[in-house]
Amino acid sequence: MNYSTPYLATSPRASARDAVDRVLLVGARVAMAVVYLYGGASKVLHFSGFCDYLGGMGIPLPALFTTASISVELGLGACLALGFRVRWTAWVIAAFTIGATLIGHPFWQGGAGAENNLLHALKNLAIIGGLLAVSVAQRAVDKRREA
Question: How many domains does the chain have?
Fold first, then answer.
């Protein structure tokens, strides 16, 4: 057998690998979605506290931004978990996370919370990378499905 030749999509090994890839992709999507679903639910339960937090940071219209954040986290978190428009969803959540990081974790300003903000910013960077990887993996799955 020539190991440099990829398996045909119809071979049992390729089918098994494809199935494992799909299961792992679903697991990755759900794991990432939990972060956003929990964040959105927490904001619902502590709406006024999060509004106060945003207002204290000088964010105008904190209730509007809190509502928008809840909508993105719960709505798109559910889309990601359920596999609805995964590539688009992952990109939008990644963009949201970039904005939330820049607004909520200004480590570059220094001060007492700089190290904690840097830690959260780096965690968000990893999440953004995971979302982009999920988008790329979903594209590969979609292409295989179309073939």
Answer: 1
